[in-house]
């Protein structure tokens, strides 16, 4: 069964459409055949029933009363009508008022409870063969004789069945011809419909491997959905490749100076003979190594959040949980054990659509900046106001330098490595996370008293999430 499904999945769309049309025509053909046969039977019955009624009326009209007795001379016209079904056997019976057979076959049994003068049809047998009958009544009110005479005329069903089969056969001929035409038309239409896909495939095959610009969307509406999805995918891939190129470029740009400085200090250490100067050189090497390690951590963190912003599925997240996760990890206690960090959470859930890991990285960087360059008290919290959900870090301080804020969101804004100032890179990470999830990084400064860095996102309701 699995191999059959796999083979079917590898078939062409044209073959699938042809198979589907064949199935529909087969199923529809069965239904139409049944309907055609039923219609043929009804048409044949109606046609030959009229012949029976005409023959019976001819016979009934030929009955006369002579000397107080009904007399019948069978008319030739009645048998000429019935002769239109030459292969069928004919039977008739004329019944008097008391149920006695005046003439005809006694084996023809009339249905019980006949009353009135309307024509009555019934199915019966004629010497063991299925037959169809009609009963016609005629009322006599003569001076010498009165009563009702019933004339029953019937014939076997060979002509009826042959007519029903003929109607069905002709209907099937028309169905087969129209079905074949529909299949050919379906194949042609499918091939025409798939021409845009061939154009798209040709355009992709001719493209340079590094060309990730959007494809032309001047295609039919049904195909445009696929083109839009493909363009979105290529856009994400382009952003990923750009992020990789920028990461490599930024790494080379940022590490060139500190690595050269470390090499220079190492050369000085190897040539220095004064123990005190050697100790100072070792201290500078340790300081620069620690600064270089922090820079590498932040650059890898930035690459992580940029990658996850495009590749990780967004989920409903309560920002209060992010705050608690960052607080409970306790990195702040290792970085600055002398500064207390106070969590401040809203009473109700603060839901957003984002990625937990990316938000944690952003908040950790904001908290690290606050601990390094701000002043106590430091607060971290999640609140919502006017449909905007925020996760923020607040300290008592003036915030980053104006040149760092002006370069926010641009490349190579991680300046000041030699001065061991990486607040710009921490804000760049937070800015990248906010932008990845349709949010923004909001920096509020109030003189020299309070500075708040907040990631703001559109809030989603709990029932809509």
From TrEMBL:
It is found in: Membrane. CDD domains: HATPase, HisKA. Its EC number is 2.7.13.3. SMART domains: HATPase_c, HisKA. InterPro entries: 2CSK_N, HAMP_dom, HATPase_C_sf, HATPase_dom, His_kinase_dom, HisK_dim/P_dom, HisK_dim/P_sf, TCS_sensor_his_kinase. GO terms for cellular component: plasma membrane. Pfam families: 2CSK_N, HATPase_c, HisKA. Residues 250-461 form the Histidine kinase domain. Keywords: Kinase, Membrane, Phosphoprotein, Transferase, Transmembrane, Transmembrane helix, Two-component regulatory system. Gene3D superfamilies: 1.10.287.130, Histidine kinase-like ATPase, C-terminal domain. One of its GO terms (molecular function) is phosphorelay sensor kinase activity. Residues 191-242 form the HAMP domain. The chain crosses the membrane at residues 20-40, 171-194. It catalyses: ATP + protein L-histidine = ADP + protein N-phospho-L-histidine. PANTHER family: SENSOR HISTIDINE KINASE YKOH, SENSOR PROTEIN QSEC. This is histidine kinase. The lineage of its organism: Bacteria, Pseudomonadati, Pseudomonadota, Alphaproteobacteria, Hyphomicrobiales.
